[in-house]
Write a structure and sequence with these properties.
Layout: H1 8-15, H2 22-26, H3 28-33, H4 40-55, H5 57-62, H6 68-80, H7 87-91, H8 98-111, H9 118-129, E1 162-165, H10 168-172, H11 178-189, E2 194-195, H12 206-210, H13 217-230, E3 235-238, H14 241-250, E4 256-259, H15 260-269, E5 280-284, H16 289-293, H17 298-305, E6 310-313, H18 331-334, H19 336-351, E7 357-360, H20 363-375, E8 381-384, H21 385-392
Helix pairs in contact: 4-6, 6-8, 11-21, 15-17, 19-20
Bound molecules: iron/sulfur cluster (SF4) (2 copies).
C-alpha cells in the first residue's frame, strides 16, 4: 500500500478538484444506481483522505479518526463499480485525467489487498492461458473454421502486410465471433494481404490495467510486439477499441495502427468493397474507448453512410457525449445488475430514435446490448460496423 501507485501529476491533479459535481451529473453508474458514492467526486474526496493519511507519519501513528486501511476498504467497491467510460473526464472543467486516475486507484487497491476477489480469476487466467477467459490459447483462431471456405492456414501466415489483432472477446465469445468472421470475409473479398497471430496473440493488456494488474503488462506487450514485428507487417488492425486504445497509448509508436472502422472506410473509398443496397435505418453508438478514448468519431459514421440505402439517425447523446452501454471496466463481472441497468438506459435511448438497428464498433458493446435486448425480447438489431458492411457485401 503506497502513494507510489500515483504519478506526481496525479497527486497534483486531485488537489485541483473544485467540487463542482459535473462528473456526477454525467456518470452512467450514478444515474443507473442513484448512488452518489459512485461518482468521481466522492472517489476523489476519499482518495485525498487516504493520500494524506499515508503521508503524515504523525497522523499514521497517533492520528485520531479511522485507520487508513479502513478507508481504503470502504472506497474499494466504488472504484470497481465504474465502467471506465471516461464521461467524467470529458466534462471535468479543470481537466483532471480521471480515467487514468481510476486505473491507478485500482492498482493501489490491488497492492493494498482491498480488491474484489474476482480479480484473482483474471490474474490466473492471464498467467496460465495468456487470454482473459482462461481458454486454450491455441484455439484463438478456431472461429476461422466457421467461415464458408476457411483457408488451410486459418489465416495464420509467416509474412503479411497487415496483422489483424483479434482480441480475446472476439476470439472466444460465440456472439462476438461474428465480428472477425464478417471482417475476414470483407478482407478476403477486398484482396487484403493479412494475417492473424493465432496462438502467438496474447491479451493486449487492457484487462490488466482495468483490473489493477499493471505489473503484469510488460511481458504481454513485449511478446505481442515481437510476434507482430516477425510478420514484417506495415500495419496492425483492431476491431476491438480497447485493444486499439491500448496499443495507441501503451505500446511503442513505431508501428502503424488502425481501427477496423477506419480501415474499412479506406477500402470502401478505394472501391475495393462491392456494396449492394440495404434498406435499413440505423443509429450509431460510439464505443467509449474508440470515441472519447481515441477520438475516432467520423470514420464509422462515414462507413455507415457509404452503404447505399442505409438511413442514418444520430442518438440524442452522441460522439463525446455518448452514454456507455454498461459493458466497460469489468463492471459486468463485479456488478452485473448495475451493468444491465446502464444497458437498459442505453437501449431506451436507442429506441427513442426509431432505428431498426444500433450499430457500434466494439465487440463488448455488441455483447452487452445484445444480451439486454435478447433477455427483454426487444425487437432491435445490434450490429458491429463490420457486420453491417458484411450484410451489404455484394459477393
Ligand atoms: S468513468 Fe464513467 S462510470 Fe466511471 S466514474 Fe467516470 S463517468 Fe462514472
Ligand atoms: S468534474 Fe472535476 S472538478 Fe468537478 S467535482 Fe468532478 S472531478 Fe472535481
Amino acid at each position: 500500500m503506497a502513494n507510489t501507485d500515483y504519478s506526481i501529476s496525479q497527486l497534483i491533479q486531485v488537489e485541483a478538484c473544485t467540487n463542482c459535481q459535473e462528473c456526477a451529473r454525467v456518470c452512467p453508474a450514478v444515474e443507473a444506481s442513484q448512488q452518489g458514492d459512485l461518482s468521481a467526486l466522492y472517489r476523489i474526496k476519499g482518495l485525498k483522505e487516504i493520500l494524506k493519511g499515508r503521508r503524515g507519519i504523525v497522523s499514521r501513528l497517533f492520528g485520531k479518526g479511522r485507520p487508513i486501511e479502513e478507508k481504503v476498504k470502504e472506497i474499494s467497491p466504488t472504484v470497481f463499480r465504474c465502467t471506465l467510460c471516461g464521461n467524467c473526464q470529458e466534462v471535468c472543467p479543470v481537466g483532471i485525467r480521471l480515467k487514468d486516475l481510476w486505473l491507478s486507484m485500482r492498482q493501489d487497491l490491488v497492492h493494498s489487498d482491498a480488491y474484489p476477489k474476482k480479480i484473482n480469476m483474471i490474474r490466473e487466467n492471464l498467467e496460465e492461458s495468456k487470454n482473459v477467459f482462461g481458454e486454450d490459447n491455441e484455439e484463438r483462431c478456431e472461429w476461422v473454421e466457421d467461415l464458408d471456405e476457411p483457408p488451410d492456414d486459418l489465416y495464420v501466415r509467416d509474412q503479411a502486410e497487415v496483422v489483424y489483432f483479434t482480441g480475446c472477446v472476439a476470439a472466444y465469445f460465440p456472439l462476438a465471433q461474428k465480428i472477425p468472421l464478417a471482417l475476414a470475409e470483407i478482407l478476403e473479398v477486398s484482396g487484403v494481404n493479412f494475417t492473424l497471430l493465432g496462438e502467438e496473440e496474447w491479451c493486449c493488456g487492457f484487462p490488466m490495467l482495468g483490473a489493477g494488474l499493471r505489473d503484469m503488462f510488460g511481458e504481454f506487450r513485449d511478446h505481442n510486439l515481437k510476434v507482430v514485428r516477425e510478420k514484417g507487417a506495415q500495419k496492425v488492425m483492431f476491431a476491438c477499441p480497447s485493444c486499439y486504445q491500448m496499443w495507441r497509448e501503451h505500446y511503442p509508436k513505431d508501428i502503424e495502427i488502425v481501427h477496423a472502422s477506419q480501415f474499412l472506410l479506406d477500402l470502401v473509398t478505394q472501391g475495393k468493397v462491392p456494396l449492394k443496397q440495404l434498406d435499413i435505418t440505423v443509429t450509431y453508438h460510439d464505443p467509449c474507448d474508440l470515441g472519447r478514448g481515441a477520438r475516432v468519431f467520423e470514420a464509422p459514421r462515414a462507413a455507415i453512410r457509404s452503404i447505399p440505402g442505409v438511413k442514418f439517425v444520430e442518438l440524442p447523446n452522441n460522439r463525446e457525449s455518448c452514454q456507455c452501454c454498461g459493458g466497460g471496466g469489468n463492471l459486468e463481472m463485479i456488478d452485473a445488475k448495475l451493468s444491465a441497468e446502464i444497458a437498459k438506459r442505453k437501449i431506451e435511448e436507442v429506441l427513442s430514435t426509431g432505428a431498426d438497428a444500433v450499430v457500434t464498433a466494439c465487440q463488448q458493446c455488441v455483447r452487452t446490448m445484445t444480451t439486454y435486448v435478447k433477455r427483454n425480447k426487444i425487437p432491435l438489431q445490434v450490429l458491429d460496423i463490420t457486420q453491417l458492411i458484411h450484410m451489404a457485401l455484394d459477393k
